[in-house]
Design goal:
The complex is a heterodimer of chains A (114) and B (116).
Chain A (H helix, E strand, L loop, with lengths): L4 E3 L2 E4 L5 E6 L6 E7 L6 E7 L2 E5 L7 E4 L6 E5 L8 E8 L8 E2 L3 E5 L1
Parallel strand pairs in A: 2-11
Antiparallel strand pairs in A: 1-3, 3-8, 4-5, 4-9, 5-6, 7-8, 9-10, 9-11
Chain B lengths: L2 E3 L4 E5 L4 E3 L2 E3 L5 E8 L6 E7 L7 E2 L2 E6 L4 E6 L8 E9 L7 E3 L3 E6 L1
Classes of the chains: A mainly beta (114), B mainly beta (116).
Chain lengths: 114, 116
């Protein structure tokens, strides 16, 4: 068990470009979450998957954002036409269905939009 | 919507002393879960302690304990015998019961400094 991993750890992009982040959850976890964390704030929920199904989406997830989890394993979060306001840490977490306890977090991807 | 408030942006404690971090939350539900997460600088968040709302007994994990006051909607974290490795951002989080949404609601965090 290597924990939740995220790639890349850092991404610098120019405004208007598209970016894609990847999250690999703990192998037996069937639930996967994406959060956004801006400076001085706690993580804010973006979306949640159970297996390959996207079950919840926050209103923070605008039309420029899309998330997928093909085959219920890794997940990708894509941001199209990035804006400076998208600069943040994007956190992925996973958990096991049937447990009501903690989510296990990855190290995050820090996005800087210039 | 659920909100979680951490009114102490920064706290400091002398090594080996005790510190208490505050957290309040707003909910109309009776069944939920509360958590404290630790986020060291440039490292990922890890769970410190959790509390089920239906349990009256306060949770304890080694040097970490909580004071859960359900009526007051308060959930404070006490760190005893503080160590240098306790320095981190601490986030209080709320999760609705297992039969409703799965997302966590986080507070804005408290930055804890441990003074040698």
């Amino acid at each position: 068990d290597t924990g939740v991993s995220q790639d890349p750890r850092h991404k610098i992009t120019k405004r208007g470009q598209n970016v894609t982040f990847r999250c690999d959850p703990i192998s037996e976890h069937n639930r996967l979450y994406w959060y956004r964390q801006t400076l001085g704030q706690g993580p804010e929920f973006l979306t949640y998957f159970q297996n390959e199904a996207q079950l919840e989406k926050s209103r923070l997830l605008s039309d420029r954002f899309s998330a997928e989890r093909p085959k219920g394993s890794f997940s990708t979060l894509e941001i199209q036409r990035t804006e400076q306001g998208d600069s943040a840490m994007y956190l992925c977490a996973s958990s096991l269905q049937g447990t009501v306890y903690e989510q296990y977090f990855g190290p995050g991807t820090r996005l800087t939009v210039t | 919507a659920q909100t979680v408030t951490q009114s102490q942006p920064e706290m400091s404690v002398q090594e080996a002393e005790t510190v208490t971090l505050s957290c309040t939350y707003d909910t109309s539900e009776s069944d939920y879960y509360l958590f404290w997460y630790k986020q060291p600088p440039s490292r990922q968040m890890i769970l410190v302690i959790r509390q089920e709302a239906y349990k009256q007994q306060n949770a304890t994990e080694n040097r970490f304990s909580v004071n859960f006051q359900k009526a007051a909607k308060s959930f404070s974290l006490k760190i005893s015998d503080s160590q240098l490795g306790d320095a981190a951002m601490y986030f209080c989080a709320y999760r609705r019961s297992k039969n409703t949404g799965n997302q966590f609601y986080f507070g804005t965090g408290t930055s804890l400094t441990v003074i040698p």
